[in-house]
Design brief:
single chain; mainly beta; Double-stranded beta-helix; six-stranded antiparallel sheet; globular
Length: 230
């Protein structure tokens, strides 16, 4: 399997060229852009109903995933995420697990396993939920961002990130939730809570914050006025 990332960094798209018949790529629902007409597509709940429902409910993944299978060498598949942003190809290796934020999984080879990971009450406090997706195994994994992608190599020193800008991080890295400053900063600075990462590994961040976008657009949304009866 050969991979190429196109249209970066604003509207990233991945092109996968299969080297031989039988190669497969598991893709998030609705992410296919184009494909060779002879590539086979099968839609199913990966890992069965219970595991698929758990990933949907807790990890933000689609209940149904599409598996694309090559029927001959040289066939190409193009996939892209829903958010406007960038992509990253992560070559997974055994024992090098990756923790992925909800909504940041795009595609992976079938040899990459996905499961939900309990993040404890600190995940709830961060505003990002109790669970992340945990990717393990060996093979190509594609993650996507909202906005640009920024990669940070952590060397053991603490590193602070706004919770809504986290995309993924190595399982060797841990984090704690804390306030930006005092109570005044917590409620008036617009920053809220942050994650303080420690350990050695890789951290992927996105340059845009979907929560901030929703807050920006809220005053402009159409509101239907209700008229009282006479």
């Amino acid at each position: 399997m050969q991979t190429q990332l196109l249209q970066q960094p604003d509207y990233g798209m991945a092109c996968v060229t299969f080297d031989q018949a039988g190669e497969q790529l598991v893709v998030e629902s609705g992410a296919m852009v184009a494909r060779d007409p002879k590539i086979k597509m099968k839609t199913k709940m990966r890992g069965g109903l219970l595991k698929a429902a758990k990933r949907k409910l807790f990890g933000g993944e689609s209940l149904f995933l599409n598996t694309f299978t090559a029927t001959e060498p040289g066939q190409r598949l193009f996939v892209a995420p829903a958010p406007e942003g960038d992509l990253q190809l992560v070559p997974m290796q055994p024992g090098q697990d990756l923790i992925i934020q909800s909504g940041s999984f795009l595609a992976a080879e079938p040899t990459v396993q996905l499961d939900t990971k309990w993040s404890g009450f600190k995940g709830f406090l961060s505003g990002e939920g109790f669970f992340f997706l945990k990717a393990s195994g060996q093979g190509n994994l594609f993650i996507n961002t909202y906005g640009g992608l920024h990669q940070v190599q952590l060397t053991g020193q603490p590193y602070i990130v706004d919770t809504s800008h986290i995309v993924a991080f190595s399982s060797t890295v841990t984090f704690t939730i804390r306030k930006v400053g005092g109570l005044k900063s917590l409620f008036l600075s617009g920053e809220g809570l942050v994650c303080e990462f420690t350990g050695v590994g890789t951290l992927w961040l996105q340059t845009r914050n979907p929560t901030s976008l929703a807050s920006f657009l809220n005053p402009f949304r159409a509101v239907k006025r209700q008229t009282g009866s006479t």
